[in-house]
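Exercise 7b. Backbone tokens:
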């Protein structure tokens, strides 16, 4: 644990293991909200996913139950700061944040070259914001223990969106195997279905960062796992020009933060890839889905150039042996409309 993270943890009050979250809709509607936990690794696309969820709690009757942090795009201490910065900007300090795994299950982790730090060393483009965000949302409980308590408190009522390496979830499965039966649904940003990677090898980044964790999750989840793979990200055609023009003038304070981050990160890029945001949008509005297919999938653990790759076993035809639903196509126009709606920060 870094010294910065220790300081933040010392600032946390120890009153109770789970923060009493303010779900704005519970007293306003008859139907119970759909509860969700966002497990992330703190890059700009993670922030877009968090923003998409929080901005749509009322419209889609959801409750962001917790945010859990994992290593991945940055050190877990930086991931925490990035999450807190977004929550501070939105005045949503009621959303509890839990710190989880700081490293993959097997160490040392995979070697990362410069391209693997797409979001900079700190996940937010190494932008100097000047000052640390409030840590009021930070909770003392480890993310894995928080997941256990929440899934037991709300059995089969919480969906998990996992948009970083799957270390926290794999630890949950191994430490508390009985808990996995209490998860309502699981959506993952990660893996690949045609061997197209974004790490210089044949693996997608989140699976590349912790292949063993991905292997555990795909082979131990009692429910079918919805996977949004890297190849589907590549099919989206949001240009950086559209992104910068659309959000240049915004009243949303979280987008103001992300403008500073992405002006650095996307300065020389033509295509904007807010990968994790797609998973949040799909959870909110399933009508976005246009083409999905179930398969049996495994994670390659030993290949010299394929370690971390998600391999589709096409010869396994029996649906009861399938463990993933791969999302191949979504309605980009609907997603675009949802993004534009975020511009209004009211």
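Sequence design result:
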């Amino acid at each position: 644990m870094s010294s910065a993270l220790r300081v933040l943890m010392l600032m946390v009050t120890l009153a109770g293991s789970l923060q009493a979250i303010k779900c704005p809709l519970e007293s306003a509607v008859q139907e119970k909200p759909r509860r969700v936990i966002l497990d992330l690794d703190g890059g700009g696309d993670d922030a877009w996913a968090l923003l998409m969820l929080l901005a749509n709690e009322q419209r889609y009757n959801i409750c962001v139950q917790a945010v859990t942090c994992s290593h991945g795009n940055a050190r877990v201490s930086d991931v925490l700061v990035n999450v807190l910065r977004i929550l501070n900007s939105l005045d949503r300090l009621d959303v509890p944040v839990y710190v989880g795994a700081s490293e993959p299950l097997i160490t040392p982790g995979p070697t990362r070259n410069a391209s693997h730090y797409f979001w900079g060393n700190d996940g937010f483009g190494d932008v100097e914001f000047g000052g640390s965000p409030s840590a009021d949302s930070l909770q003392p409980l480890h993310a894995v223990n928080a997941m256990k308590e929440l899934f037991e408190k709300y059995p089969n009522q919480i969906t998990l969106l996992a948009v970083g390496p799957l270390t926290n979830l794999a630890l949950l499965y191994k430490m508390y195997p009985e808990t996995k039966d209490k998860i309502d649904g699981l959506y993952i940003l990660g893996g690949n279905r045609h061997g197209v990677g974004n790490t210089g090898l044949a693996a997608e980044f989140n699976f590349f960062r912790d292949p063993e964790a991905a292997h555990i999750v795909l082979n131990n989840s009692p429910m079918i796992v919805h996977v949004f793979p890297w190849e589907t990200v590549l099919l989206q055609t949001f240009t950086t020009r559209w992104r910068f023009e659309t959000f240049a003038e915004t009243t949303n304070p979280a987008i103001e933060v992300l403008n500073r981050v992405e002006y650095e990160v996307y300065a020389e890029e033509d295509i904007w890839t807010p990968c994790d945001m797609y998973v949040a949008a799909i959870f909110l509005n399933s009508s976005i889905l246009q083409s999905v297919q179930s398969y049996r999938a495994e994670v390659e653990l030993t290949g010299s150039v394929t370690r971390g790759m998600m391999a589709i076993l096409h010869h396994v035809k029996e649906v009861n042996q399938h463990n993933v639903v791969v999302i191949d196509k979504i309605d980009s126009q609907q997603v675009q409309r949802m993004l534009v709606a975020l511009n209004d920060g009211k």
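Instructor comment: Strands lie at 34-40, 62-69, 97-99, 158-162, 185-189, 225-228, 289-295, 297-299, 310-312, 324-330. The chain has one domain: 34-342.
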